[in-house]
Each structure stands twice: as C-alpha cells, then as structure tokens.
Amino acid sequence: MIDRTVWGLFAALLVVLGAGFIAADWAQFLLVLALAKGMVVLGLLVLMRAGLVSFGQGLWYGLGCYAAGMAGNFLGVTDAFLLLALGIAASTTVAFILGFLLSRYREIFFALLNMAFSMILFGVLVKTSVLGSTDGFNVLTPTFLGYAPSEAALGDTVFLLTAVISFVVAVLIHWYLGSTMGFIGEAIRENELRVEYLGVSARRAVHIKLMIAAALSGIGGVLTAIAVGHVDPEMTYWTTSGEFVFVAILSGTGSVAAPFMGSIIFEVLRTYAYEYSPYTWQMLMGAVMLLVIIFLPGGLWSALSRSRKGEGK
Amino acid sequence: MLTTVAILVDGLVYASWLFIVAIGLTLIYGVMKILNVAHGSLYALGAYSAAWIIGIYFQSDLPPYGSFAVLILSAVVIGLIASLVIERGVLRLMYGRDEIVIVLATFAIFLILEDFVKLVWGVDPYFAYQPYGLLGRVRLFGLGFAIYDLALIGVAAVIGLLVWWGLNRTRIGKLLLAVIYDREISVAMGINVNLLFAGTFAVGAVLGALGGALTAPAISVSPGIGVEVIVLAFAVVVIGGLGSVPGVLIGALIVGICRAAAVHLLPEVELFIIYAVMSLVLALRPQGLFGRAAVRKI
Lengths: 313, 298
Description:
The structure holds two protein chains of two kinds.
Chain A: H1 4-22, H2 25-49, H3 57-75, H4 80-102, H5 107-127, E1 137-138, H6 151-178, H7 180-190, H8 192-197, H9 202-228, E2 230-231, H10 238-251, H11 258-276, H12 281-295, H13 299-312
Antiparallel strand pairs in A: 1-2
Chain B: H1 2-32, H2 39-57, H3 66-89, H4 99-121, E1 126-127, H5 130-134, E2 137-140, E3 143-146, H6 147-169, H7 171-181, H8 183-188, H9 193-215, E4 220-221, H10 225-240, H11 245-265, H12 270-284
Antiparallel strand pairs in B: 1-4, 2-3
C-alpha cells in the first residue's frame, strides 16, 4: 500500500510545509487556500475518472463553508476538528440524499443538475437575512483540541492543519482509486452498460463517488472558512463551481497530486494576473484554459509525466 | 385580480425576454451539441454595443424612431463578428471532442469576452433609456405598463415564428433538422455540415446579441450582466429540453410566470424558484419537457 505515490506525496508534504513556514504570511495564506480548494478539485478528479463533470461543486463547498460558520455562530463550536466533522457530515448527508437523483444522470445533464442544486442553495442563502444575505458573515476564530493559538500563531496552525489534511486525504483517495471500486469509475466512463453486465451497479458506484467528492469539498469548504474567517453566498455561485472545473482541467486527472499542484499554480497565476492587470486577469485565465484544452488535453500533469517518460528512454 | 394581471403581464414580458435570449442557445445546442456558455457574453456584447450606439445616435438630429433600427442593426453586426471569431477561431478546433470539454472551452471564451467588454467599454454603466421612454406607457386593467416591455412580447413572437418558419419551411431548415436528427448520416448524404455549423452559430449568436440589445434600453448596462443571464437561459433551455424550439417557448413561459408570481407573492423565493423548477423537471423528465430521450449505445 505504501507505494511510490505515497512517498512522493509525503515528500511533497515536507516541501510544502518547509516552503509554507519560510514564506511570507500572504504567501502562506495563498497556499492554505490553494490546498483547501485543491481538495474540492480532488473530488472533481474522482468524478472525472468516471467521466462525470459537475458544474455544481460549489454546492458541497458552500455547505462546508456555511456549516463551519454556522456551527461557530449558532452553536458556539470553535474546535477545528469538530467543525471539519460537521462540514463533512453536512455535505455528505446532502450528497447522500441528492445522490439518489444525481446518480441517474450522465454527461451534460449531470453537470447541469448539479449546477441547478448549487444555484438553489445560492438562491436560499442570498435571501436568508439571518445568514447575512449577500454579505455573508464572519466565522469565529478556531481552536484546536483546546489549544487556542495567539493571533500570530493562528496562520501557522491553520496552515499546518491544512497541509497535513491534504496529505492524508490525497493518500486515502490514492488508495481508493487503486481499489476495485476506484477502477470501476474508469469502467463506467468507458462503457457503463458493460459494467452493469459484469454485475456492478453503476448507479451505486456513482452515488458513492458523489459522496466522496462532496466530503472532500466539505473539508475544503471548512478549511477555507477557517482560513478566510468569512463566508458568503458567492462560494456557491456557478462561477465558483466553474473555477473548480477550470482547475481540474488545468491539472488533469493523472494523479491525486495533480489537483493540488494545479490549484497552487492557479492561485499564484491569479494573484499575479490580478496584481498586474486587474481588468484583464479573467481574459488571461480564459486564454490559459483554451490553450490547455487545445494543446494539453490531459492537463499539466500529462505534460509532466510525458517528459518524465521521455527521460526514461 | 390586480395581482393576477400583474403576474400574468410581468410574467409574459419576462418570458418573452427569456425566450429571445434562450432560443439562440437551444438552436446552437440542437444543431451543434454545444452548450454555449459564451452566450452570456454575446448578450453582454449586444447590450453594450446597442447602449453605446444609441448614446451616439441621440446626440445627432436623426429621427428618434430610427433608434430601433440602429438597435437591431448593431446586434446583428456585433453578433456576426463575434460568431465568426468564436466559431471559426476556436470552436472549429474542438469538433469531435467531448461535449463537456467544449462547454469548458466556451466557458473560457466567456471569461475572455467578459474582460474584453470591460476593456472596450470601461466599467462605468451605460444608459440607453431613450427608446424605452419613446413609446410611453399604457394603462391595462388599472395598472401601468411600459409599452416597450409589451412590445417585447410581439418581438419574441416574431422571432419565434421566424425560427419556426426557417426550420420547417425552408430548404436550409430541412437540412438543419436532418443534422439535428443524425449528424453522421447527414454528412454521408452530402450535407455541408461545417457550413451549417458556422451558419447556425452565427444565427444563435445574433439572437443572443439581439436579446442584449433589446434589453439595453430597460436596464443600466454594467459589467457582469452576462453572468446571470447565462444560468437563467440554461434553466429555460433545460426545462424545455435541450435543443428543442417549442421547448424554449414552454420553458420561458414557465420560468417567466413562476418568477413573476414569486416577485409579487413571495419575494424571498425569487431566485430559488427558477432552479427549483429546473431540478423538478430534470428529476421527472431528465431530457426536459420536449427533449428526445437518447438511445443508450453499447
């Protein structure tokens, strides 16, 4: 079970931790956001391996964000681990219920039904004044198993938590994708009918994948809420979901490390694009996306693995 | 009674607007199997160019009613230019790829055009209220309505009839229906599918731009107007059935009336109701009300 990928991920964790603790506060914050969103994209990777693309990951992400925010503000829960558990519970439960419906759909309908559900959540949040409507609300400062870090140490603690969780999650998903249930995803993408002939329920497999993706997005949402300290309905809007799909395409589905790598590249790219050309950063992102779609159908990861294979020869 | 009239008229006006915006989207999907996210940008392009040109028009001494012709002409020109660039420049390279990948490509085009609009027209809002005020208001059943809004119903009807006539009563329409039904067989029968694709995309783009141009006088044209329109149009098209022209009509009416009812009776659910209806329809009839179920391929 401890194969090369796990060691690679562990090495990546050490590199990220080292870089994060040396880096300036803003860069560390950027890294936290990138890793948190990377988990949402990892959820998309699980779905995309099964040939499914969702334009509504903002739904699960937003559920995680709001679960964390509401648990703090209404129940007084500030423990980060408890918040994570609540976030996962919220998004997975909703995914379990909606999954009965969603797992019947494929291709464009799957993407659009997901989007419709996320837009319903958006519509509800925007009109709920208790939750601050379009402004959202602030999230309480988290504690960690009774440890309440000072203002200065908070950033480092959140970063450490996010990095370690990203590593654990990536390893778990790596193992899952290597299992029979994981491989069934690819079989469903190739030919669903034959999967059924082999005696596996494709619907059940998709249902489970949906819940995994939702749980991952929930974790990403909770960590984002903790790191940013604020949640708003924008997190469930279709453009947020579109951004996740964007990063997923940019990264490619070649490895569980790809979403994190893609997400970090995306955040850095966006930060600099926004810094240097505030009015044309979207244009830049769109152009990058078009180039990747046309020239790198397998995402950045495919370019990486291709060049590595080239060295081996 | 008054509320009922208000809901019906507002709903009809809103439905007409939705119809004009969404019919281009469904036409493109029906023929090309491309769910064009950039349709929102075409709407924004149409709105901006119309608002801009009307501003110029009313500074001259030309007869004010000519502004309607200018409005439509600007939409046609900008729609044609944009469609040429998008279809010939980018989408042409994607034919044969997964539907989802093409959706993402149009999403990328959408992002690019969003900033293009800001670059060309800046971030300050444009107002082109003159044509809206020109037609005045009318009282119906004791309620005041802007005639411009009511005229929109007529415009939508004309566009709908033209599209129906074009598809069912002309040679090109028959060819298009053949392509919609089975692309491969059509190619085998000698239909120039690439040419039809370019033409369909142009017509769809012009309709999208026209939707924006016709809306421009009624709103303040500002950045971000395309973002909301596209998801609304998605909802309409999905409810009616992707690629179905009668479906768009029904979808627009359902969404229009639902939203008008929500606005007048229960404003809290205004946004929510549209997507709730969309989810409900998808849950009961995945292919939409008028869609054809796809054959499962082994």
